[in-house]
Design a protein that fits this description.
With about 190 residues, the protein is mostly helical. It has 6 helices and no strands.
């Protein structure tokens, strides 16, 4: 039975990273790909419909972790406590940015929430990478260190590429500097 639940857990986690990784990457690239306010509006509009659906995968991952592996859940949450808090705060910042940026009309209002989307997305990417590096190391030692930072940078780079690929599919040639050849990132 453990093999079945491990497979379900892995499938759900891969699904989350594959689907929500694009949204996190788009948020990270928001300042680079949306140089003007109309461009940022198009970038956010391209990713926003998918965000809540993608987060369902994370809720399912947490449900399987809590239900099928309660002893591991305690070890992971206590061993990665600073990263779990950073993940939650980053998630709240990014989602608040997505929800509140269109509540009032004004350049400063939207620009501020656009930065919250970007900062929250970077926080999510780096925290996930550091958590994965710590779990790969068996949760021995501090999750915040050089190996964790390396894992965070690798995951952030992967999410950024995934987000750029997603936007090149959703908005081909409509985002300032974005093309299928990656000119906006160079």
């Amino acid at each position: 039975m453990d093999i079945l639940w491990t497979g379900v857990f892995a499938l759900l986690l891969i699904g989350y990273f594959a689907l929500e990784g694009s949204g996190i990457g788009v948020g990270m690239l928001l300042p680079a790909l949306g140089r003007t306010q109309p461009d940022r509006d198009r970038v956010v509009a391209a990713m926003a419909p998918f965000v809540l659906a993608n987060e369902v995968w994370l809720v399912a991952v947490a449900g399987v972790l809590f239900g099928a592996f309660p002893s591991i859940e305690g070890e992971v949450l206590s061993g990665l406590y600073p990263l779990v808090v950073t993940l939650l705060v980053s998630w709240i910042l990014r989602d608040a940015g997505l929800w509140f940026r269109r509540r009032l009309d004004g350049h400063a209002w939207r620009a501020g929430w656009d930065w919250m989307i970007c900062l929250g997305s970077y926080g999510l990417a780096l925290s996930w990478g550091m958590a994965l590096a710590a779990m790969a190391g068996g949760l021995s030692g501090s999750p915040i260190g050089l190996p964790g930072l390396g894992g965070g940078l690798v995951v952030a780079a992967a999410f950024a590429f995934h987000g750029w690929t997603f936007l090149s599919w959703r908005l081909p040639g409509q985002v300032t500097g974005a093309s299928r050849t990656g000119g906006a990132l160079l």
